[in-house]
């Protein structure tokens, strides 16, 4: 290649190294750490009887917009299928695909259906908390069980999985995304007042409730203030005096809190009955897990409804772990040590070292100084006279 051609090639590679905002190359040792974390998480999922499935990265758009997917439509990249001329979308959340599998290919599978998954998801825009637009999601879905024991199991699996990768000091935040709407329905609020109330609760703005009628304002002010540790929050919620569906949801929350305290006594539990961000499609109790000192939630989940082709629905509970959050919480993994094998090392010697757990770098040319060659290739050890020696 002549001089000008080399310059053009170099310029092309420089442009290729510039990635779109929200995307990045994952290099060693981070890439290896991420893969190891995924393996450990999935091992925990499988140990509880969840079956691993792997749906495609891209599906027809309408398949990803059914049920819970409707709330995620704005996050999806879209592309036209040149073969069918139908619009396709790149998944922004794998929970939607689990719901599709449960309602179609696995519709006749015994319930409760337990699914585990892991894969990359892609979103059109990052957030302040999660600027990455591509990241790995790993999780479980428990489909076809109405019992509160479903929430208990999924939370317990999520806690154990996170602990298995070295996360300690976990805290759980429980949410009730549909509660405010239930109260609006029971109070028969008109559309304008309802919208005003939901916006105020979403913004945690007690002052915005001042314009409401006293009896309505009192209820929603009490709801806003019922945030805190599980015991305190349940006491506050118990004083509000719910009825109908709202009362049933609070009773379910109370039962779940009692079960969690018994099964996971070391888990810090808080309740925020007005939190809806990221829980828009939840039909019941939602939850998020945090680590002490972490920058953002490690994952979230909750109860939602799987919509079947005929229109019938079944209850499901799931949880997703976000690997970017997990990686930012854990200490970086050290670069793996490697053993340099001089050029004359036999294949049998290298195989024995790898069988013993070593990672080897085979010398491909006769180096004048094997020790210097080992250092140049960033090896931590070198092989000489039948033994492994540290540099």
Question: Whole-number radius of gyration?
Answer: 26 Å
Describe the main β-sheet briefly: 9 strands, mixed
SSE string, helices as H and strands as E: HHEEHEEHEEHEHHHEHHEEEEHEHEHEE
Q: So, CATH architecture of the domain at 20-166 and 293-324?
A: 2-Layer Sandwich
* Tally of helical runs: 13
Relative strand content: 15-25%
What is the CATH class designation of the domain at 20-166 and 293-324?
Answer: Alpha Beta
Helix content: 25-40%
Coarse shape: elongated
Poorly predicted ranges: none
What's the CATH topology label of the domain at 20-166 and 293-324? BirA Bifunctional Protein, domain 2
The CATH superfamily of the domain at 20-166 and 293-324 appears as Bira Bifunctional Protein, Domain 2
Q: Kindly report the spatial arrangement of strands forming the biggest sheet.
A: 1-5-6-12-11-10-7-9-8
Give the helix/strand class.
alpha+beta
Please tell me the overall pLDDT. Answer: 91
Q: What's the number of extended β-strand segments?
A: 16
The CA-CA distance between the termini, in Å, is 39 Å
């Amino acid at each position: 290649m002549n001089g000008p051609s080399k310059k053009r090639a170099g310029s092309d590679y420089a442009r290729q190294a510039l990635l779109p905002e929200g995307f990045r190359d994952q290099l060693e040792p981070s890439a290896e750490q991420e893969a190891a974390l995924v393996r450990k998480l999935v091992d925990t999922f499988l140990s509880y009887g969840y079956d691993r499935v792997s749906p495609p990265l891209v599906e027809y758009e309408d398949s990803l917009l059914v049920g819970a997917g409707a709330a995620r439509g704005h996050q999806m990249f879209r592309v036209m299928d040149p073969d069918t001329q139908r619009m396709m979308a790149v998944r922004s959340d794998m929970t939607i695909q689990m719901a599709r599998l449960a309602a179609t290919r696995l519709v006749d599978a015994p319930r409760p259906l337990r699914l585990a998954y892991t894969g990359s998801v892609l979103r059109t825009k990052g957030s302040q908390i999660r600027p990455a637009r591509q990241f790995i999601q790993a999780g479980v879905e428990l489909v076809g069980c109405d019992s509160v024991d479903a929430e208990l199991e999924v939370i317990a699996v999520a806690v154990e999985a996170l602990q298995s990768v070295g996360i300690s000091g976990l805290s759980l935040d429980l949410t009730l995304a549909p509660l405010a709407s239930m109260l609006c329905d029971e109070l028969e609020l008109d559309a304008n007042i309802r919208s005003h109330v939901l916006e105020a609760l979403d913004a945690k703005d007690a002052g915005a409730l001042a314009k409401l009628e006293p009896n309505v304002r009192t209820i929603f002010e009490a709801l806003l203030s019922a945030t805190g540790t599980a015991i305190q929050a349940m006491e506050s919620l118990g004083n509000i005096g719910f009825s109908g569906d709202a009362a049933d949801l609070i009773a379910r929350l109370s039962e779940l809190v009692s079960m969690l305290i018994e099964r996971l006594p070391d888990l810090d539990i808080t309740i925020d009955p007005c939190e809806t961000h990221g829980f828009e499609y939840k039909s019941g109790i939602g939850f998020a897990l945090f680590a002490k000192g972490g920058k953002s939630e490690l994952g979230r989940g909750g109860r939602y409804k799987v919509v079947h082709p005929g229109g019938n629905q079944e209850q499901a509970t799931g949880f997703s772990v976000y690997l970017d959050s997990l990686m930012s919480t854990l200490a970086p993994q050290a670069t793996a040590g490697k053993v340099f094998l001089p050029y004359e090392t036999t294949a049998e010697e290298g195989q024995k070292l790898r069988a013993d757990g070593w990672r080897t770098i085979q010398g491909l040319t006769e180096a004048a100084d094997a020790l210097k060659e080992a250092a140049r290739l960033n090896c931590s050890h070198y092989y000489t006279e039948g033994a492994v020696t540290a540099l």
